[in-house]
Amino acid sequence: MKSLKFLLILTMIISLVAFSGCTGNDVDTDDGIQDQVEGETPPSNDIPPQFDETDNGEYIYGTAVVEDIEILILESSPVQVNVVAKGYLPDGCTEIGDITKSKDGNTFVINIETIRPADAMCTQAIVPYEEVIPLDVYGLKAGAYNVVVNSVSDSFELALDNLPQTP
Question: What are the CA-CA distances from residue 147 to residues 99, 109, 156 (Å)?
């Protein structure tokens, strides 16, 4: 009888110790949010927030996440330049909205906006996109040019003035 009591008490103590780590009130629970140490780069699999989201009641407008750009210089006369922007949209309802281009000195600035219905129920899976954006390079002088697409930048160089060749 004494060994049965001892075995029962031992089983209860082991059970209490084993289940004590299963409480929902633990301060150090991992809720998917990682603290960033000052000066540390966040992991690349984190989804950056969309910038400048505004809601006009019917649609939510934002700025597209751009992960990479590629500059393609086409072999033609005059030369044509395309920028391929690659990134992702945060859900299944968000689409590419307006794409605006401007030129300031030797820098082309491109803004890719997003649009989504405000009251839509959407899949919560990211959706990759790729946009080809032609640059207006006709008449440019030979030289180096920068391209900035939603804060992602690259550069290209024109070896010759970009004017039609005359025979």
Answer: 14, 6, 8
Q: Which residues pair with 128 in a beta bridge?
A: 88
In 3-state terms, what secondary structure has residue 1?
Answer: coil
Token pair, residue 138, equals 């006709």
* Local structure of residue 80 (DSSP, 8 states): E
The DSSP result for 122-166, as a single string, is ---S-EEEEEEEEE--TTPPSEEEEEEETTEEEEEEESS--SPPP
If 0-12 CB within 10 Å is exposed, 13-18 middle and 19+ buried, where does residue 165 land?
exposed
Give the pLDDT confidence of 64-94 residue by residue, as tens digits. 999 999 999 998 888 999 999 999 999 999 9
What element of type H or E holds 7? helix 2-19
**Gap between the Cα atoms of 128 and 140, Å rounded:** 33
